[in-house]
DNA sequence: CGCGACGTTGATTTGCCTCAACGATTGTGG
DNA sequence: CCACAATCGTTGAGGCAAATCAACGTCGCG
């Protein structure tokens, strides 16, 4: 069945009865998206949250100077959304683009909000997920401040080899906050 | 009463009945802490969450090279903890230090976990708080990548004038991820 | 008063960027 | 299926933002 991966992911994060799990999952609907297509573009208002079944996505912004800045990648078993736009219902600064043919499960914002009210276990689930994400962002900020570009690259490459192998060096560079020319030079010196 | 600020802060983040609010707040106990004293030091396991009633704190880490790196400041009406150590019960990489004589309300980890189970509204409260914090961290990462040191300094200075006025330039520099010498030069050129 | 942390300033170095050129890969239309 | 375009990766020359190191004045504090 389609939603097994989602169900496992949810159960990993918070205890939930099978009945509630069904109630939650039935609001997710599948969507296929082709390579290079966008799930969200800068200026849109984010009205969904997504869970990746297959493929890989890049969540990035383009600043005033025209530079691309990648917030994160989302491969199989990852969640994605623009939480800023989703929460505040303001125009998004982010683009969510498929890096290869991909499949996601989406839940509409209104359905998600209804689930919060219907099931305390859903509150817990997203509370736990958000707190884990917070930890990851704090650690990343520390790495950005304490490590050199070369060290950050090696951290990324060894920590996420599955993602690293799917994406271009240019995209890695925009995640690390450096130019792709400089990344090329880093890779050369070992 | 002592806990008014805490109660207002909670009500700002999530709807909660007065009865439940009392149940939640009664687990918070006050603590006074003198300038330069530590609420948590690197290596400790974080067993509390705190809410600042008065004063100001700095949450920072010291890396292998001996550089101080400030994750954030917490003034009146802010929450503080090492969420990484709190969640995983692993030794903390962070120091939480009072920058002036301060007062906090603390809740023990075990009490907080019990409150999650007792009240769905507490799950919602911390779910919402965590998601707001997530948005703030994402925005900060984007600023770090897209703005120059000078722009980041001015953003901090104008966005948090109350904090900015209380702390030393050295501390601001460690928050911005630059040296205090360079911050001095930035400030000079306007 | 005197010590230690802070802030400033200058000289020098370095990590990373910019621009430009060119081969290698990948995508696309005829 | 090939030809051409577009994007990507590499390399080099030069430049700039920010770090490092060092000296010195200042302030708060014991």
Using brief descriptors, characterize the structure shown.
23% strand, DNA-binding, 190 residues, 4-stranded antiparallel β-sheet, homodimer, Jelly Rolls, alpha+beta, 8 strands
Verbal overview:
- The structure is a homodimer of 190-residue chains.
- The first copy, chain A, is of the alpha+beta class and 190 residues long.
- Chain A contains nine helices and eight strands.
- Chain A has a domain of 112 residues: Jelly Rolls (Sandwich).
- The longest helix of chain A has 27 residues.
- Chain A is globular.
- Chain A starts with a helix and ends with a helix.
- Chains A and B meet through helix 3 and helix 5 of A and helix 3 and helix 5 of B.
- The structure holds a DNA duplex (30 and 30 nucleotides).
Question: What is the topological layout?
Answer:
Two copies of one chain form a homodimer.
Chain A: H1 4-13, H2 18-25, E1 29-33, E2 38-40, E3 48-54, E4 56-62, E5 68-75, E6 79-80, H3 83-88, E7 95-98, E8 102-108, H4 109-118, H5 120-146, H6 149-159, H7 161-164, H8 169-176, H9 180-188
Antiparallel strand pairs in A: 1-8, 2-7, 3-6, 3-8, 4-5, 4-7
Helix pairs in contact in A: 4-5, 8-9
Chain A binds a DNA duplex (30 and 30 nucleotides) through α9.
